[in-house]
Here is the input.
Amino acid sequence: MSSQGLKEKKGFSLNGFVAFVILLLVVGYLVTEVITAQVGFATFAIFALVILSLPGFFMVQPNQAKVMTFFGSYVGTVKNNGLQWSIPFFIRKNISLRIRNFESNQMKVNDNHGNPIEIATVVVWSVDDTAEAVFEVDDYISFVNIQSESALRNMAISYPYDQHDGDEVALRSHPQEVSEALKNEIQQRLEKAGVKVHEARISHLAYAPEIANAMLQRQQAQAIIAARSKIVDGAVGMVDMALTQLSAKQIVELDEERKATMVSNLLVVLCSDQNTQPIVNAGSLY
Here is the structure.
């Protein structure tokens, strides 16, 4: 039977304690036969079956499974915990169903804008289909590691490191969206290996050392520009409010030249990053 397209199915097994009680009853019967001197061919046959059935006992730990094969054919998976008994000729392979973590190495890749960055991820996964995990890939643990790093590299070149446009999804500014995209891409790659991805998140993200200083200055410049823009917007609103209230309350009448001078002085006071020194005019306004 080919292993291509195999899906997990329930394998045959009995409760080990029930099988053990049955085995004790059979042994008791054999002892009775020996004591009564009624040993025959049937007795020897039953005794041989008892000996052959002993290797059929096996233990299944919590969150583990036994994948069973018979002469190269997959016959099922046993997930019932505790002592179990199955046909002794079945070969049983242990496989863990527990949730595992994989942390990739820090990789140097280029983002969507061609900037070299360092990136790493943590993937939380578990085996979902034991038949696919054992028979579809050579080593499912190695397969998870390699495919996760490949998916991370492919995802990193699809997004920029920093957000430059208003609606642009970036690695640094949209961690939830990026994590979901990374999880979906890893899941697609690991689907054939019977692996379920529970979570995938970026654990390390930074510019490459050769451009880190330049990009830091760029980020600082962008922050200063954004802050100055807010200050200017607020200052213009305050100047407009001051001129409107002066005119509405008829406190002072200003011609266009004086208004321009007043606007200039107010903007200098409001937009300056240092305290201004006031100059008191003791003479007339004009």
